[in-house]
Amino acid sequence: MVALGLAVRSGSTAVDDWFHRYRHSPARCLLFFSDPRVLALVVIATLAVALYRRRWQLAIATVVCPLLAMWLVELLKPLFGRKSDGVLAYPSGHTTTMIVVVGMVVLVAGVARWAVLVAVAVCLLGMIGQGVTYHYFTDTVGALLLGAAIVGVAALTLGRAPHRT
Questions:
Q1: 106, 116 in Cβ contact below 8 A?
Q2: What is the pTM of this model?
Q3: How far apart (Å, rounded) are the C-alpha atoms in residues 80 and 5?
């Protein structure tokens, strides 16, 4: 994430320009996946499942990890200084939070194959939505790397409890 941030610090890349060609296309609807209201509902549902399963540490992580992600993004953005439309952009906060929230869903689901596949699809769609609108696409890739690191640390810290198949 740091290497990408340093590499793209100066502005748009050819990949970013390609995505921005679709700025006013129906792809804007993909912002749904990174909408804070949608993510808040997903966090609440994920928390409810973790509490129902009596996975207390996982329930705490479900709430703390997205907040940690938002805090880290705010800490990192000024260090990279990359701007899009005059606003600090790298890494994308909406995308980082989305990745972490979806990652927590995967952990609560016991890392089930269906949850991983749905998570990959949702994250890619959300990244495209942000990449064609408010961010450079490379901002969303940096966010993916940061969010995945946060979820990975949470998974290693919590361990993996067996689940019913």
A1: yes
A2: 0.91
A3: 6
- In angstroms, rounded to a whole number, what is the distance separating the alpha carbons of residues 116 and 31? 20
Helix or strand (DSSP H, E) at 84: strand 83-84
Among residues 133, 140, 128, which one has the least CA distance to residue 91? 140
Q: How far apart are CA 140 and CA 5, in angstroms?
A: 11
Exposure of 7 in the CB half-sphere (CA atoms within 13 A): 10
Convert the pLDDT of each residue in 110-132 to its tens digit: 888 999 999 999 999 999 999 99
The pairing of strands 83-84 and 87-88 is antiparallel
CA angle 43/34/97 to nearest 5° reads: 60
Give the separation between CA 48 and CA 42, rounded to whole angstroms: 10
In this predicted model, what pLDDT tens digit does every residue of 37-94 receive, in sequence order?
999 999 999 999 999 999 999 999 999 999 999 999 999 999 998 888 888 889 999 9
Please name the helix (run of DSSP H) or strand (run of DSSP E) that holds residue 31, with its range, or none. Answer: none
82 contacts 137 by C-beta, under 8 angstroms: no
Distance CA 81, CA 89 (A): 8
**What is the crossing angle of helices 137-158 and 56-80, to 10°?**
150
Q: Tell me, what's the pLDDT at 75? A: 95
